Amino acid sequence: MSAAAVKELEDLHKKLINEVESYKTLQTNFEKARGARQTLEAQLLENESVYSELSMVGADSKIFKLVGPVLITQNLDDSKQNVQKRIDYINGELKRQENALKDLGKKSQIQKDIINSLQKTINDRRMELSNAAGSNSGQ
Fold first, then answer.
1. pTM attached to this predicted model
2. What is any one GO biological process for this UniProt entry (predicted)?
């Protein structure tokens, strides 16, 4: 096997290692985004539950909000509005996370394709070199 062929295979192998590292980074980011989405989903359920509870409360009932170590009375309509704003915000963040997950999924697939292509190129090149070495030794 010539020095140029060995160098070519080493370069391809280094490139493959770099592409695999990029893929691992994408997967790590994907897992973080999925964790963030799960947190948002839990917060959304909690806030929807609070809104549902507030909807069952009578207009003359007292609503308290915990601010630090102190309970402060709050108007029912204000409470509902605040919770609805949180729900809207969380829904927006969920959409953003979904888009980020889709984007990371696409990037991961592209990276997988690059890795597979590089692996095929390396294997094909090795086969060519071993066939060339075999035909040269037979002469």
1. 0.78
2. chaperone-mediated protein complex assembly
